[in-house]
Amino acid sequence: MNPNRSGDLMRGHGVNLSKDVMVPMRDGIRLAFDIYRPARHGAFVEGRFPTIMLHTPYDKTDRRYSEIADYFVPKGYNVVLIDLRDRYRSEASGVYYHAATPHTGRDGADICGWIGNQPWSNGRIGTVGSSYAAITQVRTAIEAPKNLTAIWPDVVPTNSFQNQCREGGAMQQHMFWALFIHAQDDQRVRDDPAKTAEVWDNLRNLRQMFRATPWQAGQTALRHTPQLEASLLDYYTRGAYDSYWDRVEHNYTKFWEQHADIPVTMSTGWYDPFPAADTEYFTAMTRLKKSPMRLIVGPWSHVGMRGEASYCHQVDFGPDSVWGVKRYFEEQLAYFSRWLPDDATGQPADEAPVRIFVMGGGSGRKTPQGKLGHGGCWRDEQAWPLDRAVPTPYFLRGDGGLSTQGPAPDEAARQFTYNPAHPVPTLGGLYCAIGELPAGGAGMEQAWARLLSPVLRLRDLLSPGPVDQKEAPEFFGSEAPYPRLADRADVLVFQTPALTEAIEVTGPMTVHLWISSSAPDTDFTAKLIDVHPANEDYPEGFDMLLNDSIIRCRYREGYDKEVFLSPGQVVPVTIVLPPTSNLFGRGHRIRVDISSSNWPRLDLNPNTGEPMGRHTHTVPAKQRVYSDAARPSYILLPVIPAAESGTVA
After folding, report:
1. 307-365, pLDDT tens digit by residue?
2. What residue ranges in 2-142 does DSSP mark as E strands?
3. Torsion sign, CA atoms 320, 322, 326, 327
């Protein structure tokens, strides 16, 4: 019995656990199952019950997983938790490559087949889990095993090349950090004190390691986990979409036709790395399948749906934004009760398929917790994207304006210099997290080690979410005198006048630029910002980040080929921003920032045109953004007509 379980369950009331049941997969490798079943007076309850299944690389005995059994088993469900192959108590086959692990879907199908054949199973399986434990759900659904009945993947990436490992041609460097988290408990490291210590020493020196690029084989403690080191170098150097990225391990979107036609609930957050992936997953399933699909998007960062706070980083969205573990489980129970029991009744006819949180409408003042009161409310929708959204171009003007009025023929271009030695620092945004291990003396380290796992002692090096776009000592990469990003010479700001009426923007969006550069290859970045007006709490106002992204110019004509720039050549580029939903209030401004770096969230372009991840030096690049009538640069915003921007509590 799990020692972390509650007192009632420790006495055997309600749940029995069969621990580390070793179940062979089709290739003979055995996975470790923890099987929780309904019990009465310490004995298994006879009968066939529906099953909730979770398949994870993060240790099936973790409290966040065993509490699933605490909740579901007393209500008449089996709960089966499984360690991924090569992880924890499952057997090793030497194929754990993080996102690129090949056996996950087939193992998921074998797991479903085994559970479905057990005498305690009614043959209906629902799956749960967030992040990697959502990846395993979708990979299993692509195999379409017959016992898989309904799934709830929370914050799942569906295309590693577009929305997990790379983005717009650049590497998402939260994956550098994530690989160390997967290395510290790798089966080849965890029982070797010297290797374990080296992994944690790397995480203690993460700042230096981010600066020590280009990364090379043997440079880090990942050399003790060859598959994870190989994944790092693939994520870092494979900038073009090739056969590596085209495999099912990386790109599920190619296999949607094979996906089981079963009910799916997709949940994500506007500040999670994957709102684009999850909303596109919903759209594809709705188009291709007959089963009912649901989409839930809140004002959350990664796995924030289970959080108990009403704020994300520096911004508060009000008490209605909170789900927390209790509601999370209640909603999942209601969902699976429609599909898994023998007497399941299916989807209620009146339930809206889409529920989104529209951010905005708050006071703009500081809350008792010291957060910006941005507010917001939930709203039900019948489709995604919203049919009533009006694609509206807001043109970047030569004088720094942002306007629905098109530019003049002689509108001036704006220019800046991008120097990779002094990049624009990451201030919030959409990524998982990046944590570092605090430095400490040997005695302190040993004392803490007896009390807490190093994972629990990590502190944020970068925190995702909405942040005022002003440098500060606590933000890695910031430099004195810590200016507002709007005041940096390498950031072009385009903003509307103060709005006379509120404007809601909900949906996916794109930025279209005409650019030139002195470099053969360079990057352009874009951010969408809600500029709160100044008040007593925020004398300088608050420049609230909504979303951001990038384009690496060598891939401007497609990710399957490299097309380099000629000095001064004027070309169009498109930056695809993640979707969001925000009400820009009266007196606020809509702002777009254009630059060429967002570090360390995204890797730096050296501006040399050398092979990806193998550069020998960096050089500054002189950048231009054009805004005249013949070369209009603009952001295409999905504007919701004011009369149709209703909300529900």
Report:
1. 999 999 999 999 999 999 999 999 999 999 999 999 998 878 789 999 999 999 999 99
2. 15-24, 30-40, 43-44, 49-56, 78-83, 121-130
3. positive
| Contacts of 501 by beta carbon, 8 Å cutoff, 6+ apart | 586, 642
CA dist 381 and 588 (Å) reads 26
Q: How many CA atoms lie within 13 A of 285 on its CB side?
A: 26
- Which phi-psi region, left, alpha or beta, contains residue 107 (left: φ > 0; alpha: ψ -120 to 50)? alpha
Asked if residue 623 lies in contact with residue 416, where contact means CB atoms within 8 angstroms, the answer is yes
Distance between CA 274 and CA 302 in Å, rounded?
9
Q: Are 278 and 163 in contact (CB under 8 A)?
A: no
| Per-residue three-class SS string for 362-414 | CCCCECCCCCEECCEEEEEECCCCCCCCEEEEEEECCCCEEECCCCCCCCCCE
Domains of the chain, earliest start first: 7-159+251-299 (3.40.50.1820), 166-244+435-457 (no CATH), 390-425+488-644 (2.60.120.260)
Residues 287-310: tens digit of each pLDDT: 999 999 999 999 999 989 999 999
Query: Is the CB of residue 628 less than 8 Å from the CB of residue 406?
Result: no
Each residue of 202-218: pLDDT tens digit? 999 999 999 999 999 99
Closest CA to 522 of 623, 592, 386: 623
Which range (259-273, 561-575, 631-645) has the least confidence? 631-645
**Lowest-confidence pick of 7-21, 225-239, 319-333, 516-530:** 7-21
Q: How far is CA 276 from CA 169, 204, 352, 385, 577, in A?
A: 16, 32, 20, 11, 9
Cis peptide bond prior to 420, omega within 30° of 0:
no
Cα separation, 573 vs 552, in Å, equals: 9
Tell me, rounded to whole angstroms, the distance of Cα 53 from its chain centroid: 22
User: What's 29's DSSP letter?
Assistant: P
What span, in angstroms and rounded, lies between the C-alpha atoms of 442 and 30? 39
Type of residue numbered 33: F
